[in-house]
Fold this protein.
Amino acid sequence: MERLLRGTGSTTALIFFLLKLSVAVDIPLSVRQVPTITKQSGVQVAFPFDEYFQIECEAKGNPEPTFRWTKDDKPFNLSDPRIIVSDNSGTFRIPNEGPVSHFQGKYRCFASNALGIAMSEEIEFIVPSVPKFPKEKIAPLEVEEGDPTVLPCNPPKGLPPLHIYWMNIELEHIEQDERVYMSQKGDLYFANVEEKDSRNDYCCFAAFPRLRTIVQKMPMKLTVSSSNSIKQRKPRLLLPPAEEGAESPVIVLKGDTLLLECFAEGLPTPQIEWNKMGGDLPKGRETKENYGKTLKIDDVSYRDRGNYRCTASNALGTASHNFHVVVEEPPRWTKKPQSAVYSSGGSGVLLCEAEGEPQPTITWRVNGAPLDGHPVAGDVIFPREISFTNLQPNHTAVYQCEASNVHGTILANANIDVVDVRPLIQTEDEESYPAVVGYSAFLHCEFFASPEAVVSWQKVEEASPLEGERYHVHRNGTLEISNVTEDDAGSYSCWVENAVGKTAVTASLDIRNATKLSVSPKNPRVPRSHVLELHCESSSDSRLKPSLKLSWGKDGEAFEANGTEDGRITIDGANLTISNVTSEDQGVYSCFAQTALDNAADVTRVTVLDVPDPPENLQLSHRQNRSVQLTWEAGDSHNSNISEFIVEFEGNKEEPGRWEELARVPGKDTTVLLALAPYVRYQFRVIAVNEVGRSQPSQPSDHHETPPAAPDKNPQNIRVHASQPKEMIIKWEPLKSMEQNGPGLEYRVTWKPQGASASVEWEEETVTNHTLRVMTSMVYAPYDVQVQAVNQLGSGPEPQAVTLYSGEDYPDTAPVVHGVDVVNSTLVKVTWSTIPKDRVHGHLKGYQISWWKTRSLLDGRVHPKEVKTLRFSGQRNHGMLPSLDAFSEFHLTVLAYNSKGAGPESEPYIFQTPEGVPEQPTFLKVIKVDKDTATLSWGLPKKLNGNLTGYLLQYQIINGTYEIGELNDINITTPSKPSWRLSNLNSTTKYKFYLRACTSKGCGKPATEESSTLGEGSKDIRKISEGVNLTQKIHPVEVFEPGAEHIVRLMTKNWGDNDSIFQDVIETRGREYSGLYDDISTQGWFIGLMCAIALLTLILLTVCFVKRNKGGKYSVKEKEDLHPDPEVQSAKDETFGEYSDSDEKPLKGSLRSLGRNLQTAESADSLVQYGDGDHGLFSEDGSFIGAYAAAREKGSADSTGSSAATFPLRA
């Protein structure tokens, strides 16, 4: 018996609640009692694809109940040979064999024994008929342009729900808009017709998804005749029809969906508006659909009743209609009669109250029969109450209360059992209950007694009942021992006694150690953005460890099993990890342990360290020309001591608003003397730093301005650029705004040739920018250059001279190519002579090789000139050219280049590359296999790299294991042969094939393929399916291999690949591949194939033309998906085949039961003679119910023809 354990808090409350509920126990079946119905069917529908129909009724009681049935309130005999009755219950089955319509009706089950009769609710068994449109000839409808019209659908009755669709013969939906509308009944309304509405194939389709059936009405023809006058008119309502008057009543059930519709004719097309008179439309539950013509209100309540108005309007006037909406409700219980057990002499009350709209009528029955008068003296009967006094065993009965109104009936059985019996203890004797030290233990003693009994507990070794605050006996007999200790272990006895007698059972209590937890680290301090890991160490009684479960929480709220949704906090059993810690993660973290008997918890406080708050109250003092003292107050350090302060300034005239670092101050100080530059208007701010990071900057200080002075430094990074020979464009880094020290900054530039005598004077020029162009007398000669800063208050320090070179010129001579050494078929080494230094006219950067392919040595074809280049840095006389084409002739040139550019090229040098190995074949395919042979086909390599000498074909067994078979070689010495037939292979064996192309230099990389041979009696046919569009030009079909068999299909336009209306198998005949450039269009077999296809196409077009003129059949094409009622989810099972306008021929197709393979059906158009299949799966009115795959069903067959086009319809 399961042990109950009480912990603390919510655990205690939950267990107490459960114990309180458990007081109302059922009568044990060993005690005599009236029948109680335990199971019954709801509404049953006889779907044609079900194997049987089961109507259930099960009951318990003592004596064991017997069952009888009524059908439509008349006795129903279960002796019908077709009915299969279940043993020991009232349940019976009706096999789906033959007609079952005579079983339709409302059934009721009665379970009876010697003490009473229980009655089930009515069980309706529905046998739906196959819906059919009536055979009729629909007269054409002719309407003048601008007039209104209605196309009636009048769908057949069938099992709801019903979905109606208007489509044309090609199964394209009729477009609906503000002018065209399909009503709730399925009729198609036109507010004003247009010429484009003329067509002869308006078809109404009715879909019954629960029956998996779609039926089609005969096509209707609408002709719109043109009119010379514009018939503008004000709106006139077509829906609701005029005969309903200005107002119509609407009844809707509470909780259902209210649908109101209005449609008006007129020109221009009227617009529809909705409103609730005296109130507003319910927000959030109302939607307007079908261009405003339908008002939909979901989940209707009583507050939705009232008057609603639809108004149709155009430029010429308005029309309106009122709907009086009444909300009603089926009966529902407010006080449902409850079964009860009484002892002799007792009293009781049965209450039965129900609400609904209209108000339900209450009817009482006893043992299934109407309650007339007072069956037992002393009973008082009211419409909603029965009172019992001085109950005796003859009161034992089943009372039925039935509440009904026009919308339904509900029934409740209430058992009145008058029993006098010695207590029956239902808890097993000698049960053992485990408990944990410090928790509450619960020892069960569940019993049934009538009259009421007294329960007492005692230890087996003690004679007196247990007493004290730690012991409490609940109403259901359970003993609760609070705060148990090891001394509480032992055996206990439970005694239950009433006026009839007493009974006892024993139980034992087993005490176990409590679970303990420890979370580490204790009270950690974690910097923001770091990772925190917490570990929960647990210890528990060895017998509780299998049930131990750990969980985590923070500040009293539990985490999900794996952590937070964003993944920042992850939980893995005893470990909790927080990534990128934030201030929100600070708090108390708890680890909880839960076992089958106890729980435990431990906590740790996490402190998050963050960046400091910004410093405050900045003050300036001791102001000097080049210094100032700054003081401030530190902000909150957020649990981490401030290590330093960073002082920043703003005052750069060139970059106003940009803050730069000026000084760093230890964290213990809050004042600093700052060194300043001249001619700057300073403003300061301070940033605090701790181990976590930097604070936000403080508010800026007051301004402090320093006076100007001469420059303290000269420009740096003096360099030269030149765009032409002998030119020097001297550049340098200008002084920053903070380095200028004053206004009027200029740069004094001086220069002279390096190594010139002292008598040569420096040339000089002063500029305001940071560049100067100078023309010298020599090409690429060194000069000494100086740059000095000057402002209005003086010059900077004496400058240092740097060496710069004047501008370069192009090299004026070309290298001489000495030779080309072939390394392999794609790599050569080129050598050349270097050019003299005085001919470089600058700094030599390297040499450049240019080369191009002139012709192929394989076929002698001249190659277009495509020059490639490769540069080699530095002073060198050789280089390697990679990635050349093998077996080809090349030209190359060499030139020198410096910083200025490239010199002249050398004379072209001619060289050739030798043959190499080919690339791998472009493809390798197994085009035909048999039990011991395989035929392979391949394509030439993209690059032969020489004269092709043949192929190396290798193969070995692989068969899906780790071991592979021996590699077999075949040398194919005919280069032009594109296929090979292997024989003497093992049957039912998997092989891997390798094919390499070869030249005189060897064989290249292989192309590979895998395939398996067939078993005995199998035949392989490699097929190619090609759809031919009858309205397009016919293109040739590619054939991969002579002798292979192929399938040719003719297909209607826009059908899927499996929708062929004709197919045949042909075998190609032709010579083997004889060259790389053979033209397939010149081969006889290809011409014959094209002629055959052209002939078949002509025949097909002729037949279709003849049939169309006769009003015959037309192939339909797949259009849209219909997703019917999700209750059956059978949309993918529904198929159409074709439409016939001369008779109600069936829509070809078949369905399958849920979970079974789809049964195929033929295309069934005017060329149906080319395929074969079952034509008897459909009813003559065009409906189809489907062929279901159960073994016992009749009339289903697998079609061997091509698959029919499937098109589940979509609204």
Q: What stands out?
A: The first strand starts at residue 5 and ends at 6. The helical segments are 10-21, 1084-1109. The radius of gyration is 50 Å.
